Predict the structure.
Amino acid sequence: MSTDAPVAVRAVDSQADLLERRSQAVIDGVESIDPDFVLHLASSTLKIVLDHFIAGDGVRAGRQVFAMPREEEGVAIASGLELAGSRSVLIFQDNGIGNLLTALLTLPQPYHLPLFGVVTRRGGLGEYNSMIHTVSERTEALLDAAGVRWFQLDARTPVDRWAVEIKRAWDFSRATHRPIFVLVNLMGG
Amino acid sequence: MQATEVASAIVDTVPDALCVASLGTATSALRAASNDGPHFYFGASMGSALAGAMGVAEALPDRLVVALLGDGELLMGAATLWSVAAYRPANLITVVLSDGVYGITGGQALNAPTRFAEVVQCLGGVTNHRVDTAADLCHALQTAARPALIEAELDERVWPGPSPFVDPAKVVLEFRANVHRSVSPDSRV
């Protein structure tokens, strides 16, 4: 019997492996920030990352993890935390960008508050939801139109550089006193 | 009661509290009552003020935080009541200016029942109070188990006076100074 798996199975395995390696890189990047608060939305593609902070090795004394019902609530809580001197990271999917724009542009942006988010990409290669691309493919355009700075991590950046780049993006948010998002492609592409 | 009486009751009863006021009537009233005190004034971002106050409260568990909100504001950000009920910051009091209209925009009706006290009663984890006099408000501020929501019924709509449109850089600087100032041990939570 051949030890080679059928091509389709190899592809699925490859995507799962990709998801795991990229998710771990995101975890490493966020851990290098060492946030006091992790604010997240529900997400299937972020499951590995969220599991780490909710119930895995990311659980630690002094760190709190809040599930947010909407992205704009996360923006407001993160802004309050920042005002009072705490470190927080928002984690959510790009299809929620539209929800948070008003809060983002009328709270942390004009008050010059650093705010940092890791945003997972949806709608591209490997996507299984046939409707989500209609908003997700417009993420960069929405953020550009809003004047919100973002950085992209995908196949063009070696995965072993991701954690470092996430930390650099966090530092950039602190240095420039504004919201910064890192768009991470966990699904391929 | 008028909105400024509500804000004055807060400033006089819990003078060391960090206050977060939503845009419009709440910000104008708190500015008037505190002589532009070092509180956080939302100049926009409607629906975000309770979440912002929750962030401050979570970051500073030993400081009392009072969110002063319009009822239209809270209606727009009502989902945050669920987060407050879930995470139960024991240093947060929410005071709602309840008159059933959007004050800053000219008095359009909410066309929604202003029954926030009953909502948090259903959610659990947040004590609920309804007051219609300054004396009762002072009593509730002093005695309510926290987190608490106090619905202050307004029977007279008078614009408090100061502009609700604030200088965000000044607000942040003064609020952060307030965060870092030493307060009486008696007023610590």
Summary: Chain A touches chain B at residues 36-37, 64, 66-70, 72-73, 75-86, 88, 102-103, 106-107, 110-113 (CB under 8 Å).
